[in-house]
Amino acid sequence: MPLEFLRQWRRTLWRQYVFGLRRYIPRGARRSIGWLYGSYVFCRISPIATRMLGPRYRRSRDRIDLDITWDCNLKCFHCNRSCQQAPTGEMMTVGQVRQFLEETRKREVCWKKIQLIGGEPTLHPDFEEMLHMMLEFRRRHSPGTEIMVTSNGFGVRVNQVLSRIPADVTVHNTQKSTRNQEDFIPFNLAPCDSPEYAHADFRNACCVTRDAGIGLTPYGYYPCVGSGAIDRIFGFDSGRKTLPGLEDGMEEDLTRFCSLCGFFRLNYTSEVCSGSLMSETWQRAYASWHERKPVLTRYPEL
């Protein structure tokens, strides 16, 4: 118990630093903190340490994010769904959400949290029907599950929809008002383009797959929902069409997607994300996407 308490305390402290406190710390001190933490993590994500200790983060078995749409009315810089870099109206269908809930029921999965996210989820034309399906499923089969909606809170239409969400739904309203987000991590700086990550074991992932959960997109299940957003650009067609079993760590998927994701990097930017930070692999991928969008196999409907 004491060891687990210390781990939780360390995770909480680091998340508070990365996503909030660092803006109040002088730049020189931030660099020192980053160097010390980075030195530790570079050792921890090495193949030798991973073989000895196992992956640093493992994908969640009891939390899931549903990217119900990649449409967005804000399109922030460094969007980890590529809403700004590669805008699209792709979305999940009501039939796909119904299939997910039926699969959950048959497999007797007890989710701690199911989150509707995007994109901007309230822009989905069937958002309220999907939310009602979630609440009805919870009432009948999983009373302990938290139903959550994350929204940018931007614009009249979005806020009108948010105002109609029932009180027993957790709403995370980020209340954005600009495309520049101080706390956004440069998603498009692929670790595979940096020599310092040449020997990293990407199975180590990042805290997103543990804390936010696995992801479900129009194209299937991924170790995190950001992986699905990467897949829609690169076209690997890696989405699982059935819910992964508890024994499946999805490590092959982590190896592929974490090598492309800026969240795996350690050099979190301390500046406002007001411009484009994009490594060569992502530049080529977006150019290819704009020329010809990949065709992926969709998650089944019920």
Strands, helices and their partners?
Layout: H1 2-19, H2 27-44, H3 47-53, E1 63-69, H4 94-107, E2 113-118, H5 127-141, E3 146-151, H6 156-163, E4 170-173, H7 207-211, E5 214-217, E6 220-222, H8 225-234, H9 251-258, H10 280-291
Parallel strand pairs: 1-2, 1-5, 2-3, 3-4
Antiparallel strand pairs: 5-6
Characterize this entry briefly.
The protein is an alpha/beta fold.
Features:
single chain; 302 residues; alpha/beta; TIM Barrel; 2 domains; 6-stranded mixed β-sheet; 10 helices; 10% strand; globular
**Assembly state here?**
single chain
State mean pLDDT (0 to 100 scale).
Answer: 89
Structural class: alpha/beta
**CATH architectural category of the largest domain:** Alpha-Beta Barrel
Radius of gyration (Å): 19 Å
By DSSP (H or I, 4+ residues per run), the number of helices equals 10
CATH topology of the largest domain: TIM Barrel
- CATH class group of the largest domain: Alpha Beta
> How many distinct domains?
2
For the largest sheet, list the strands in their spatial order. Answer: 4-3-2-1-5-6
- Work out the helicity level: 25-40%
Low-confidence stretches: 267-272
Number of strands: 6
What is the approximate shape?
globular
* Beta-strand content: 5-15%
**How far is it from the N-terminal to the C-terminal residue, by CA?**
43 Å
User: What is the H/E order?
Assistant: HHHEHEHEHEHEEHHH
Explain what this protein looks like in three dimensions.
The protein is α/β, with parallel strands linked by helices and 302 residues long. The protein folds into two domains: 2-44, no CATH class; 63-291, Alpha-Beta Barrel (TIM Barrel). The protein is built from ten helices and six strands. The chain has helices at residues 2-19, 27-44, 47-53, 94-107, 127-141, 156-163, 207-211, 225-234, 251-258, 280-291, and strands spanning 63-69, 113-118, 146-151, 170-173, 214-217, 220-222. A six-stranded mixed β-sheet has the order 4-3-2-1-5-6, sandwiched between helices. Helix 4 packs parallel to helix 5 (127-141). The longest helix is centred in the first third of the chain and has 18 residues, at 2-19.
